[in-house]
Amino acid sequence: DVIVSTAMPVDEGGGKCSELSTHQFFFPDCQGKERASQVERARKRIVAAAAAVADGIEHDRSTLVHCEWGQNRSCAVCCAYAVIYLGWEANAAI
User: Fold this and answer.
1) What is the DSSP string of 23-67?
2) How many other β-carbons are positioned within 10 Å of the β-carbon of residue 80?
């Protein structure tokens, strides 16, 4: 199985637990208030995370993408996968 994390996973007690993911692509979610350097870092990590998703799916593995709230980062990775690897239009992916 493939678990793509865009935020540090936590265990049942709320403690950080990196062992709960197989791929980690951390970047902050500043909800649209990112500096240019943060945007570029996020772009690179979103594309890399989409590649990890594609690899998991290509190898017929169950694939999970998660972030802290499931509203921005994980969605961005899934949309990037759809655009880059499935050829979807950006609006259709969103």
Assistant:
1) EE------TT---HHHHHHHHHHHHHHHHHHHHHHHTT--EEEE-
2) 21
Which residues on adjacent β-strands are paired with residue 3? Answer: 64
Q: How far apart are CA 33 and CA 82, in angstroms?
A: 25
Question: What pTM was computed for the model?
Answer: 0.88
Estimate the share of the chain in helix, then strand, then coil, as percent rounded to the nearest 5.
45, 15, 40
Backbone torsions φ then ψ of 34, nearest 5 degrees: -70, 145
Tell me the pLDDT tens digit for each residue of 36-62: 999 999 999 999 999 999 999 999 999
- Check residue 7 and give its pLDDT: 86
